[in-house]
Sequence to fold (206 residues):
Amino acid sequence: MMTKPPKGVREFYDKTAREWADRWYADDSMLPLLRRFMALLLESPRVLDLCCGAGYESGRMAALGAQIVGIDLSGESIAIARERNPALTFHEEDMLNDYAYTGPVDAVVCIAGLVHLSWEQLRCAFERMDAVLRPGGRLLLVIREGVGRQAERSDVVIDGECYDRAFYAHTLDELRETSAGMFAYEQELADTGPSVWRNYVFCKPE
Ligand SMILES: C[S@@+](CC[C@H](N)C(=O)[O-])C[C@H]1O[C@@H](n2cnc3c(N)ncnc32)[C@H](O)[C@@H]1O
Fold:
């Protein structure tokens, strides 16, 4: 008997976006981190919310004074982001594709987005960020600390359908290595202690 291949990352987020959006719009636990990052930037920065999901942190950054453009692979997530933040700009796009049409930005915020890329894909993702980030600009990268594909977080069954969410953990050394020549590591924000989630700031030299 033929087994159906699992659905992928885009299908997983299209399927779960509406249910999770309500939860994340109500949860402002990332606000202190966003405030600390925004304090490193110039006034009214133009910020790319990369892998913005349903736009909850986009809205929070806009309320803190940022001009936001958001990108996400999931069309359903982008539809919700637009409904809830009609004044902001969102694009349905793959972070590995060329999105330089969004124009130059002062910062890129990527919260739990790189978790869907393998080590081999990181270099391409950084090249795409490099193409839009102004010299002197900053990246905020929220990653899950660890090494390689996380099987228990990747393979998910919803309503009897199998999904491969392609979930990867990374280390700071991996980020430094794959972004070498483009970005320099600056600092960790809001040290999360023993948490597996880490908030790293990188900068692009002038
Ligand atoms: C764990 S959610 C994080 C959402 C949001 N950044 C947050 O603050 O919670 C990961 C998001 O990354 C998006 N994503 C995964 N792979 C992507 C890719 N290749 N290009 C763009 N977005 C991607 C998913 O659609 C999903 O919305």
In short: The chain has one domain: 9-203. DSSP finds seven helices and eleven strands in the chain. The mean pLDDT is 94. The helical segments are 9-26, 31-38, 56-63, 75-84, 119-132, 151-154, 172-178.
